[in-house]
């Protein structure tokens, strides 16, 4: 029999399953009916399980797409970094080239000013010297520091590694520097060990790379003639390879050298952002439990950016031992994660929020907890518990920027989600003590306050113009 419970205009449909147990107490004649009921329940659960599996597949597809986009962005960053390094090299080349040419001009000026008595000036000797022979006798790094020279070195290095100019540097192997120890193997590829620096790599494969430049550079780049390649001194080629190696090394570090702390911070921000979105949607769904929150002036409070931060124990850098063993392994990690998941999230309310708004949200959260606890007892759903922690201090509180990085649901109306924003905050909903203080004065602007954006008289900011809103995860 279906029963409707009314909680402040929120209608929740529940089911009375007491008849199931009653059926079990009947005699043999009622067993067939009970079996059919049980079968129906199992079929219903299977249907729900299939729906969950479909949703899981959709989410996995979304995660895969985001992973591909992230890799694409990393490649773009590596490409831009490479171009930046090329520009730096080109600037340095131009400087050294100018100095060299100034010296040549001075020598020419001295020769032209001297007697020309048939012996021939130095300028005449230079003009009659074969260019390749001149390179053999006087080539220096400054002479060879040209765009064509470094383009050739870069092309040879990319050819040795088997990558395109837009590809990120290849990952090192566990051992060695070449994909195969056979020097004559047609598919032999260079795999530099970036973390070891240039000197170790130079000793391991530098000489091979120099010989590759002299023998096969034309296969990868045609900017230098074979005669010029033959004439290039080996130390000049080695320095060119060194410069190219350093460029790839910087790209490698940009992609792979994210510290553990950086990765942990990014994961923490992602978790908090997800929790804010879920909490905003949950509060919006059950807002009718507190009629005061259903008025238009409270529209802002159902945006994710205005939610308080939910912190969890998994954000602590703590270690624990499995009580059943002396070492910390997979079992320990799983046990610790389970304990952390079971602990409630700690809500840190922002300093800009008034006591009145906090009180209304507390009432709403209590109503939501009661509703979902009842659902959990009948449908088996679960909800992570939250507890009120200490409020965020004034210095670390930032008023959310209504226009900063708005999500799709915040920009567009969604019949199943939160109404489209952005929404500025009403002045009456802001803690005036915080707003008038040193940390809130920069938000005294029409960019943040609803009344001032609607034509109301704007108060003069004590601390200058409004700020940029800061990091979203620290705003609420």
Structure at a glance:
By secondary structure, this protein is mainly alpha-helical. It has 15 helices and 5 strands.
Low-confidence stretches: 1-25, 113-143, 315-331, 408-416, 460-474
Q: Tell me, briefly, the overall form.
A: elongated
Helix content: 40-55%
What is the terminal-to-terminal distance? 44 Å
Spatial order of the strands in the main sheet? 3-4-5
> How big a fraction of the residues is strand?
under 5%
Main sheet, how many strands, which sense, barrel? 3 strands, mixed
Could you spell the SSE succession in H and E letters? EEHHHHHHHHHHEHEHEHHH
**Mean residue pLDDT:** 74
Structural class: mainly alpha
Count of distinct strands: 5
User: How many discrete domains?
Assistant: 3
Helical segment count: 15
* Overall radius of gyration: 35 Å
Oligomer: single chain
């Amino acid at each position: 029999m279906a029963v409707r419970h009314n909680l402040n205009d929120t209608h929740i449909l529940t089911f009375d399953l007491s008849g199931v147990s009653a059926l079990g107490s009947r005699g043999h004649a009622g067993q067939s009916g009970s079996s059919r009921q049980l079968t129906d329940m199992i079929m219903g659960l299977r249907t729900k399980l299939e729906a969950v599996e479909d949703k899981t597949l959709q989410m996995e597809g979304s995660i895969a797409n985001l992973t591909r986009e992230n890799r694409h962005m990393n490649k773009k960053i590596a490409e831009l970094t490479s171009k930046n390094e090329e520009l730096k090299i080109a600037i340095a080349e131009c400087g050294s080239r100018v100095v060299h040419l100034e010296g040549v001009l001075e020598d020419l000026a001295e020769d032209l000013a001297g007697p020309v008595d048939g012996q021939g000036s130095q300028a005449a000797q230079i003009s009659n010297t074969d260019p390749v022979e001149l390179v053999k006798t006087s080539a220096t790094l400054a002479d060879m520091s040209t765009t064509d020279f470094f383009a050739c070195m870069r092309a040879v290095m990319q050819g040795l590694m088997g990558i395109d100019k837009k590809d990120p540097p290849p990952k090192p192997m566990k051992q060695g520097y070449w994909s195969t120890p056979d020097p004559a193997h047609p598919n032999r590829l260079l795999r530099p060990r970036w973390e070891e620096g240039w000197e170790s790599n130079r000793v391991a494969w530098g000489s091979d790379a120099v010989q590759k430049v002299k023998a096969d550079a034309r296969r990868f780049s045609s900017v230098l003639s074979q005669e010029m390649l033959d004439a290039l001194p080996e130390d000049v080629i080695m320095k060119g390879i060194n410069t190219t190696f350093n460029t790839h090394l910087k790209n490698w570090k940009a992609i792979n050298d994210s510290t553990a702390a950086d990765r942990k911070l990014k994961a923490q921000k992602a978790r908090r952002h997800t929790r804010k979105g879920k909490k905003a949607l949950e509060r919006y769904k059950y807002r009718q439990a507190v009629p005061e929150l259903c008025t238009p002036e409270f529209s802002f409070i159902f945006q994710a950016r205005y939610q308080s931060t939910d912190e969890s124990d998994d954000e602590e850098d703590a270690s624990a031992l499995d009580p059943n063993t002396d070492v910390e392994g997979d079992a320990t990690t799983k046990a610790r994660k389970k304990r952390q998941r079971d602990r409630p999230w700690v809500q840190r309310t922002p300093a800009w929020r008034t006591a009145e708004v906090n009180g209304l949200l507390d009432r709403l959260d209590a109503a939501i907890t009661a509703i979902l606890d009842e659902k959990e007892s009948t449908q088996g759903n679960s909800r992570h518990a939250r507890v009120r922690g200490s409020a965020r201090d004034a210095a670390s509180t930032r008023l959310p920027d209504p226009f900063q990085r708005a999500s799709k649901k915040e920009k567009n109306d969604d019949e199943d989600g939160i109404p489209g924003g952005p929404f500025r905050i009403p002045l009456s909903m802001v803690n005036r003590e915080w707003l008038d203080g040193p940390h809130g004065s920069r938000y005294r602007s029409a960019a943040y306050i609803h009344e001032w954006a609607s034509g109301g008289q704007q108060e003069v900011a004590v601390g200058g113009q409004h700020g940029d809103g800061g990091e979203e995860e620290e705003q609420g």
